[in-house]
Design brief:
Length: 371
Amino acid sequence: MRFHNRSSTPSYFSRRDQVRLFRLVAALGVILLAILYASRESTWYWLTGKPADQASQSEQQLDPDRDVDFNVRQDTQLKPDEFRSEPAPHAALPEAISVQQENGEYDVRVDPRLLNSVSDSTLGVREHEAGALYYLLAKAAAIPQNVLEQSADPAPQFVVIMNDSNKYRGKLITVKGELKRLVPLEVEDNKYGVKTLYEGWFFSRDSGTHPWRVLCTQLPADIPQGPDLKDMPSVQITGYYFKKYGYPSQAGKLQTAPLLLARQIRWFPPSETAQAPTSSGAVKYIVALFLVISITLAFLIWRFTVSDQKFARSKTAKLMEQPDKSMDDLKDIETVDIGEVLKQLGERADSDSADQPETPDQPDQPDSDKP
């Protein structure tokens, strides 16, 4: 019969086990970082190359000064017997603004036929375009700001919207930039109840030195105002694109700018701008993962150190330091072979039986009952 020693629970107080645990946690951290790094598409561009659309966008940077015509289209002078007819919209403008449907949702769409009379690259807003302008301003004012922002599409590149203005007319878009000018404007008589109007000029990241123009009916509290804002606060504009608006620049030259009609300007104060995240979400998760791993390792090392110090002061550690003399003591003990012992016992039993005298046989005694 064989007897096996039962496996005991390993002790994690030894220095070797602590080093193993440390290496295991570090290896897991490296594996997680490798997974995050490998999950990004750009990591494998060295092997597969950039996608065709991304490669073309990165290699071809559109320049507004080179790729956009900012000239204002001026009308020729009429002869005494000539007159000019203005284009009329294909659909009549509604008399009142109705933006909420029967199901309670807001309708942010604009019928493009209402804007058929709007022309690009003309100086200012013409009289026959004013009705469509105030209609869009009133429609934007009647819809909550969060609904407008959720329904809007990101604005195309500045060069794209300037070269294909008719395609985006009446579209709800969102663009970010830096505000250069914000002043109130006089409101003309209109049938849509627009009472206040503000004009803003701002620069987007891809517009270079060419501004956007925005008209809105409301302003956030404490937003900087003035004809020349030095700090140029960060803003976000969500509004309907109207036209390429012609205006005289400070240099005395006529040029055009995209015109947006919005409900209000969303302003990002400097404190919020400074706290805005400047990196992608993946970087935040990687930093958080590093912190968790570092804190975990520091906690394990501290616990192991405390355990080692506590164990070193215990009685068990002192007993373990003494040499093991149990095997040396067993060498002096006389060993006995069980087979020899049994053989000696057998021989002793035989000798005892041989020394005992035999008892003589007794004669048969007669049966007293017989005659």
